[in-house]
Design goal:
Helix content: 55-70%
CATH topology of the largest domain: Amino acid/polyamine transporter I
Strand content: 5-15%
Structural class: alpha/beta
CATH class of the largest domain: Mainly Alpha
Number of strands: 7
Distance between the termini: 27 Å
Shape: elongated
Number of domains: 2
Largest sheet: 5 strands, parallel
Length: about 675
């Protein structure tokens, strides 16, 4: 069974990679762009949808504001990108926002940023994969109605690819990401040319009428209209998610790491802004109508409601159909590439979450297992935890993007805001000691950028909290608070353990126990018992005795057999009127400790070693329960004495290539 499991692991993940080959896993800018920027680029696929979906509540006239909301989103995006280009130079170690906040604002602020980022990474996977499954349903009818199962399968596949290593996953994802950028670029250029020439085909939804919802009969007038605009802006700011991943992943770049990371950030920001603005403009020119509830908000020209089976396609899907109506293969290319990029966007989180989890584990805020690399040099435990958490959200929210996205951008703007404030303090601190005029001018410009970024991202965070709190953002806040408290509790535990383990009195620590009292647990007089007795005697304890529990008539038979065999160790039989085994042994050991508190009690426990997992169920259950209780007793050491059964010996011989059933059986029987 272990051989089969190991072979399956090797087929799925590949051969182990030696530690000294770590340098070969570093990424060039060509591979780093699809690895780290796929999340931000994928937001082009659903950020316009969310803007138009929100504005649709106020009717068709509200769509005129969609490009201007896109401009506001682009300003915030470019500001954040500019700020993070400074961050990757100032903090290239990979801590990103967490390191910036911790160093400049204090550990609690850093932990708050880390909590927000971890939750946001999980939501990134859930939102991206759910959106990808919906796009897939648009071109593969069989997927519709099974989006949850498809999304879960996609998460599992992404996790598997990332367990093979960062470089391998980057190579696998590079081609689809570049195909997406190329296909969207071709659609934008062709669509803009058609719009200027007056030949742009109206979208399929252009013939439908968008009905104002109650409270918005007069469009975007009044306080309700202003609130709706802010809500649309906050939804569009989902386009900023993923920008922070590059600052967390600087160590994954090839040298010079900071320079390559900054160049990738600039390229990412430029491409994302061009795409989102172009898509919103084309959607307006093509008359795209996109509603949250099409059967209620959209009606046909004759005033009749939409047919029962009507399914509206996403904005990019409608644009691709409009622009490439004469070239169906290009329509399918754009739709398929968009679905792929939405799935691959989750890969950004699969690179960011494990790295951040490793840093937090190193600092003692998460279990230390998250700091350990797997045999493919990936942070395997972090990848598995991220995949499991995302699957829980996908199932809980039924892979519905509109429901999940309300939780989405709260965390990322918490990290943006605190990071901007932290970088402002960073420059202020350095300005106090910097005398060079040129360097001071550079620092002053950088501080101005971060100050503007702080004001802008803080304003967006307030808008997000106000407009999305009742729509589900409170769930994200609760998750962040729980993560914050959990990490504080983990750190408190590690601090207490360290305090317990610290040697305060070296002389006392070096003092030996006055005596060693050895106890060998006995059930029958057989080979495992004799081996345990031999081991116990070899340690030369001050006192040695064998102990058994008298639960039936076998205790008397054991005593007779013991005396006949003339075993040179006294046998003590403990009474057990209620047929218990664990309690009498515990009470006996504790009585020895009470009588001689300075004595060390060593309990030797004979155990069977079996060759198959199912055989373990048949052996060692009483020994396991007893050991778990004895370990909690002060001044007691538990020593397991293994005895290999034939199945274990056969397995060992097979592994070493020297297996002979006849000879092995003869050797074991002759012992």
């Amino acid at each position: 069974m272990p051989d089969i499991a190991d072979a399956a692991k090797r087929v799925l993940l590949g051969r182990p990679v030696r530690t000294e080959r770590m340098g070969h896993t570093f990424l060039s800018k060509r591979i780093a762009l699809p690895v780290f920027a796929s999340d931000a680029l994928s937001s082009v696929a659903y950020a316009p949808d969310e803007i138009m979906l929100t504005l649709s509540i106020a009717g068709m006239s509200a769509y005129a504001l969609s490009p201007w909301i896109g401009v506001a989103v682009a300003v915030v995006l470019l500001t954040v990108v500019t700020s993070y280009r400074q961050t990757v130079h100032a903090y290239p170690s990979g801590g990103g926002d967490y390191e910036v906040a911790t160093v400049n604002l204090g550990p609690r602020a850093g932990l708050g940023v880390a909590s927000a980022l971890l939750v946001d990474y999980v939501l990134t996977v859930a939102v991206s994969i759910s959106s990808g499954s919906q796009y897939l349903a648009a071109i593969v009818p069989g997927v519709r109605g099974n989006e949850v199962a498809v999304a879960v399968g996609m998460v599992a596949l992404l996790a598997l690819l990332n367990l093979r290593g960062v470089r391998e996953s980057g190579r696998a994802f590079a081609i689809p990401v570049y195909i997406f950028m190329g296909s969207i670029g071709l659609m934008i250029v062709t669509g803009m040319f058609q719009a200027l020439a007056g030949t742009l085909e109206p979208a399929a939804s252009a013939q439908l009428t968008l009905v104002n919802q109650p409270g918005f009969e007069d469009g975007l007038t009044g306080l309700a209209g202003a609130f709706l605009i802010l809500r649309a802006f906050s939804s569009g700011c989902a386009a900023l998610t993923g920008v922070e991943a590059i600052s967390n992943g600087v160590p994954a770049f090839r040298k010079p790491r900071s320079k390559n990371a900054a160049a990738t950030l600039l390229l990412l920001g430029t491409i994302a802004v061009v795409m989102i603005m172009s898509i919103l403009t084309l959607a307006q020119r093509a008359g795209v109508h996109f509603a949250e509830d099409p059967h209620v908000q959209l009606i046909q020209k004759d005033g009749q409601p939409l047919p029962e089976g009507y399914e509206q396609d996403p904005v990019i899907g409608q644009l691709a159909q409009s622009v490439f109506h004469a070239v169906p293969p290009l329509f399918f290319l754009v739709t398929a590439a968009t679905g792929f990029i939405l799935v691959l966007a989750a890969n950004t989180a699969f690179n960011g979450f494990p790295v951040l989890g490793s840093i937090l584990a190193k600092d003692g805020f998460l279990p230390r297992q998250l700091h350990t690399r797997g045999d493919r040099l990936a942070f395997s435990n972090g990848i598995i935890i991220l995949a499991g958490s995302a699957i829980v959200l996908i199932v809980a929210f039924e892979a519905q993007v509109t429901r999940l996205i309300q939780l989405y951008i709260v965390g990322v703007f918490v990290s943006f805001t605190l990071s901007q404030l932290g970088m402002r303090r960073h420059w202020t601190r350095h300005l106090r000691v910097e005398a060079d005029p040129q360097a001071r001018r550079t620092m002053l410009r950088s501080r101005a950028v971060n100050t503007f970024g702080f004001v802008l991202t803080a304003a967006v965070l307030v808008v997000v909290l106000i407009t999305k709190f009742t729509h589900g953002a409170w769930i994200a806040i609760v998750l962040m608070a729980l993560m914050f408290l959990t990490m504080r509790a983990v750190r408190s535990h590690y601090d207490r353990v360290m305090e317990d383990l610290t040697v305060s009195d070296m002389a006392s620590a070096r003092a030996l126990p006055s005596r060693v009292h050895a106890i060998v647990l006995v059930s029958r007089l057989h080979k495992p018992t004799m081996r345990a007795l031999a081991y116990a005697r070899a340690t030369r304890p001050s006192v040695i005795e064998a102990v058994t529990v008298g639960v039936d008539q076998e205790a008397a038979a054991l005593r007779r057999e013991w005396e006949e065999a003339r075993v040179p160790v006294p046998l003590t039989v403990l009474d057990s009127p209620y047929r218990e085994i664990t309690r009498p042994v515990l009470e006996y050991v504790r009585s020895i400790r009470r009588e001689s508190p300075r004595d060390l009690v060593v309990v030797f426990v004979p155990e069977y070693v079996v060759g198959h997992w199912w055989q373990q169920i048949l052996h060692n259950q009483s020994a396991s329960r007893l050991k778990s209780r004895l370990r909690l007793t002060a001044g007691v050491v538990v020593a397991s004495v293994p005895w290999q059964l034939l199945s274990a010996a056969e397995l060992n011989e097979k592994a070493s290539g020297r297996y002979d059933t006849t000879e092995l059986g003869r050797d074991r029987r002759s012992e």
